[in-house]
Amino acid sequence: MGRTRRSGRTTRPPGGGVVTIDLESEGCTDQPSKHRTCWKHIQALMLARRTRISKQQAEEIESFKLTSPCFLQTIPCRERSKKRFKRNNAVSKLKKELDSVSFNCYMENMWKSFSEDKKMSFAYLDSLWFTMYTEASTGAKVLEWIKRKHIFSKKYVLVPIVRWCHWSLLIFCHFGESLLSENNTPCMLLLDSLEMANPKRLEPDIRKFVWDIYESEGRPEHKHMISQIPLLVPKVPQQRNDVECGSYVLYFINLFVQDAPENFRMEGYPYFMKVNWFSPVGLEHFCEKLESLESDTI
């Protein structure tokens, strides 16, 4: 980013207490303090303003949402009593718009539920990274974080994307294989529960993102070959309203991790990823299970 990074700062939020701002951390912290703040939102605000955080800015941080003004109905990831946890109310939360912090919390809990064998074949990127990559001030930093994921040693890499107030899922398949391979075909999948939103409009940013990842890793593949990696958009189940996209992406991830073929080949496409891949009832059961996982970790 061209600037000296500070390891951390503290400031006082409205109502007292101290907010710990950890700029070295990569994820949503699990610390119990009720004033602990997800560092990515703090950093985004600091980079945008390029100034020290004042008392007024600290107050703004409390309500700051990086993704979009549309995501106002959040699902808090915070400490709460199990006695007050009501399943019916919890299930309804996943039917609302998910902000990035809530999405990441659900994603982390779901990831823990996967077997170690599955985790060996998969990696996933934070849901903010793609958006942050498109910003000039944070793009280089995101590429550094991706290096630590060792994605070229994985069969599949899950890349949740939130753009234009909408969630979709990008999947890198066999990026560590030769681009000329026929057995393990390097390709990309873009799963979108709102086909009418034209998923392909993301393609220019995705192509640039992929090229920069290859280049930052020092890969030998030629740029022309990288630009030819297929970007496939299977016809998957479509959301029933304008707020379910985040839940659909989480369910896409869950089912893909379970059912992904050992070797992704073009002749088998789209495999299980069809318009009747799952039913609304299946999605409902998934949301109940995901909320149960969250309550068990509180």
What does this structure look like?
This protein has 298 residues and is α/β, with parallel strands linked by helices. The chain has helices at residues 39-49, 55-63, 87-93, 100-113, 116-121, 129-133, 139-147, 203-216, 223-227, 245-259, 280-296; strands at 8-11, 19-22, 122-124, 156-163, 166-173, 187-191, 231-232. The protein has a domain at 95-296: Adenoviral Proteinase, Chain (3-Layer(aba) Sandwich), CATH 3.40.395.10. The chain is built from eleven helices and seven strands. The chain has a five-stranded mixed β-sheet. Helix 4 (100-113) crosses helix 11 (280-296). Belongs to the peptidase C48 family. Keywords: Hydrolase, Protease, Thiol protease.
Keywords:
single chain; 298 residues; Adenoviral Proteinase, Chain; 5-stranded mixed sheet; 11 helices
What percent strand? 5-15%
| CATH level-3 fold name of the domain at 95-296 | Adenoviral Proteinase, Chain
Fraction of residues in H or I helices = 25-40%
Q: Can you say what the CATH homologous superfamily of the domain at 95-296 is?
A: Adenoviral Proteinase, Chain A
Order of helices and strands: EEHHHHHEHHEEEHHEHH
**Strand order of the biggest β-sheet:** 3-4-5-6-7
Distance from first to last alpha carbon:
36 Å
Average pLDDT level: 78
**Number of DSSP helices?**
11
How many whole angstroms does the radius of gyration measure? 20 Å
Q: What's the CATH C level of the domain at 95-296?
A: Alpha Beta
Q: What structural category arises from helix and sheet content?
A: alpha/beta
Q: Unreliable stretches, pLDDT < 50, 5 or more residues? A: 1-45, 47-51, 61-92
Number of strands: 7
Structural shape: globular
Largest sheet: 5 strands, mixed
Identify the CATH architecture of the domain at 95-296: 3-Layer(aba) Sandwich
GO molecular function: cysteine-type peptidase activity
Keywords: Hydrolase, Protease, Thiol protease
Region (Disordered): 1-20
GO biological process, one term: protein desumoylation
